[in-house]
Design goal:
The chain has a domain of about 250 residues: Rossmann fold (3-Layer(aba) Sandwich), CATH 3.40.50. The chain is built from 22 helices and 16 strands. Helix 7 links the parallel strand 6 and strand 7. It is globular and about 60 Å long.
């Protein structure tokens, strides 16, 4: 049966999975959601023995029903290959009393690789299926990780160009170098004078700009998105939660049917929404613990039912979570509103106009699957240091936020269920923050001088992604003001 998709702001107009992937964002500014969340048609007993690639097919075929078996398997096998430094793709590591799902073994050492290594294949397959003749321009805002992972995925992919905007001074030095040294004739990187929310809002405005769409079409271009608003990003993320549960079962860490809590460091809400979708598919997940840093807009939302972005924007040591507008939350809002597109559109208009909205008591009742928590900068540093001192395991700043929140949640709630932590980036990616948390003597050191020291103290190999940028040539130097993003895109495309 064909599973169709509609906008969170208009439930009437239906599109296929491939059309939703191609468009990225609906014409009305809403996000594409499946009409319903499909159930897994394989048992956990069967999933236990499956490889990552086999699990990916079992999950994704349920969502992407207009892709043939051959097309989908080709996309999966092209994505999850030697680009990853481990055959298991997403290893599980037991750290004290929690399980860390390491999602950073791909080409750019962050969890975004899990979806962005497959999105270019899904997109180019979708273009062929829909007889697209225009060149696809991937337009993306990044708080640090999506940018590099999207650039790496789309570099020199025929029929595509990619333009990435990031906040100048709002990403780590290694994140910035990974982007500005990116090769590929079809790649462009632009630093904006503003924060991530400015970049994200600018990109969304361009998607909604009908005049710009006409100008681009006349020049032979059409926009698509590699941000987590694209359903082609979200569906592959569901896979690793299904895979993690099955592997914990295979390793006899949990028993069949035993509920597992999941803690996810959260910025744009896509990664934790994928865990929620996995639960809806039939994976026995208990609480979904949404971990925020000091930009705790989501924590406050889960506490009060009020989403309020009118607050100070704080630059933290976990920059991929320095976000005040969590775009993917809209998909959850649509769900808890009983798939009421009109109600969702009304709330999103309030967010755009006033920066705040409040959900109804009935909607709040439907958030029982979620718990919110946040960690301060001090708690994040403490989690990195104490975990290293006790176990020798080194985690990055984002994972540390999740680990600290997980610990607090257990202590405050008395919930004794086992917990999975989504480990979203390699410690090498945020090396200065990580090393100075372990020992203050590293605080004055240069990031690159710490690489070999981290390798030594953690007993891990320096990732390829880090080795590659040590002496790489800077290829992208473009900068612009936040209100000049549209003009910059037109200049890049010569429109």
């Amino acid at each position: 049966m064909n599973l169709l998709y509609n906008s969170t702001r208009n439930a009437e107009k239906k599109v296929t999975a491939s059309e939703a992937i191609l468009k990225g964002l609906a014409d009305d500014g809403g996000l594409f959601v499946p009409e319903y969340i499909p159930k897994l048609d394989v048992t956990m007993e069967e999933l236990k023995s499956m490889s990552y690639q086999e699990t990916a097919y079992a999950v994704m075929k349920q969502f992407l029903t207009d892709f043939t078996e051959e097309e989908l398997k080709h996309c999966i096998n092209s994505a999850y290959d030697s680009k990853f430094d481990t055959e298991v793709i997403a290893p599980l590591v037991k750290v004290e009393d929690t399980y860390h799902l390491e999602l950073f073994h791909g080409a750019t050492i962050a969890f975004k690789d899990m979806a962005l290594s497959i999105l270019p294949h899904l997109l180019t397959t979708a273009a062929k299926k829909n007889d697209v003749t225009k060149e696809i321009v991937i337009l993306t805002a990044t708080s640090g990780d999506t940018g590099k992972a999207a650039l790496a995925g789309f570099a020199d992919v025929p029929g595509t160009k990619i333009i990435v905007f990031y906040p100048k001074g709002g990403v780590s030095r290694i994140q910035e170098l990974q982007m500005v040294t990116q090769k590929g004739e079809n790649t462009s990187v632009v630093a904006i004078h503003g924060n991530f929310d400015n970049a994200q809002s600018g990109v969304k405005e361009m998607f909604e700009d009908k005049e710009l769409e006409k100008e681009l079409a006349a020049a032979g271009y059409q926009f698509s998105s590699a941000n987590s608003i694209n359903i082609g990003r979200l569906v592959p993320q569901v896979v690793y939660y299904v895979y993690a549960y099955a592997k914990l079962l295979e390793n006899e860490e949990i028993t069949e049917g035993e509920e597992l809590n999941v803690t996810v460091p959260t910025g744009n809400f896509g990664n934790i929404l994928a865990a929620y979708y996995a639960k809806q598919m039939g994976v026995p997940i208990g609480k979904l613990i949404c971990a925020s840093n000091e930009n705790k807009v989501l924590f406050d939302f889960f506490q009060t039912g009020v989403y309020d972005r009118n607050r100070e924007f704080i630059l933290t040591s976990s920059p991929s979570m320095d976000i005040l507008i969590s775009s993917n939350l809209e998909r959850l809002i649509y769900t808890i509103a009983g798939q009421d597109a009109e109600k969702d559109a009304q709330l999103m208009a309030q967010l755009k106009d006033r920066g705040v909205y409040e959900i109804t008591p009935e909607m709040r009742e439907k958030l029982a699957d979620f718990a919110g928590g946040y960690a301060t900068e001090e708690e994040c540093r403490d989690a990195i240091r104490t975990t290293y001192e006790k176990t020798g395991y080194v985690m990055d700043t984002h994972t540390a936020v999740a680990a600290a929140v997980c610990k607090k949640y257990r202590s405050d709630s008395g919930d004794a269920r086992k917990c999975l932590v989504a480990s979203t980036a390699s410690p090498y990616k945020f090396i200065h923050s990580v090393m100075s948390a372990i020992d203050e003597k590293y605080a004055a050191a240069d990031e690159f001088s710490l690489i070999d020291e981290l390798s030594r103290i953690s007993g891990t190999e320096v990732p390829r992604a880090i080795e590659e940028i040590r002496n790489a040539e800077i290829r992208h130097c473009l900068e612009c003001d936040a209100d000049c993003m549209k003009e910059t895109v037109k200049e890049i495309l010569r429109v």
